[in-house]
UniProtKB/TrEMBL annotation:
Keyword DNA repair (UniProt): no
Integrase catalytic domain residues: 95-259
SUPFAM superfamilies the record matches: Ribonuclease H-like
Domain of life: Bacteria
Annotated keywords: Plasmid
Protein name: IS30 family transposase ISRssp4
Keyword Lyase belongs to the record: no
Amino acid sequence: MELTHSRKLEQHEDLRNEVIGKLKDGWSPEQIAGRLKIEPRAPHQICHETIYQYVYSKSGQSQELGRYLPARQKKRKPRYARKVRGEVFPLETSIHNRPEEINDRSQFGNWEGDLMIFERAQGNANVATLIERKTRYTVLLRNNDRKSRPLMNKLINEMSPLPADARRSITFDRGFEFTSWRELKTGMGTKSWFCDPQAPWQKGTVENTNNRLRRYLPRKSDPTAFTNRYLRSICDRLNATPRKCLGYQTPAEVFRTKLLEGASST
């Protein structure tokens, strides 16, 4: 039966063209299959697993269809070998278990992290945003891909020079870019917390900052053209702007003060 299903896209050109067109438009295999089930004029139906099988088949690989998937992999793992999302983001890392001193911003060194995504025509390049919750201090990092492990390595390289009490934790959403979060704990002792599914507003500090950053990093721009110098200049501007929530001090001033307080207490 599996072989019969996997040949369905080879046998029906109209279905194959429809699926490939939707993949290129940014639809996931689940969205394509779900839409075909409710489309009254659709001559064929297909399950999302069949679409994945075709994408990773020789024919699909020759067309480089994997590049259009939300989470790109060179080879797909068998269904039984894949981790369910609950195992990737276990209950103990839920934002609902995050300590109160993080929630009320009384403790320094807890961050929120996110990716700024650009138009599909620009590829998978993106900009990672990090905001320290207490001081609102902002860090921006350019990435040429959305794979999780390279992103975590970049975060480790950026944050490792900070003292341990300045990098206690990072709160993320449940995007596939953050599935390698355990690297942060292993690499520098930083804990990770995760929002509820489809609830990015639970990390509102970084979401609001991203909205402000779109003035300098519009969605239609090419992120590979952003130099490190340009991103630092944006951070410097944000971090040097007085904030009412900080008593009209700047994020840079408060961040520097907290670093000095930590150094003097050791």
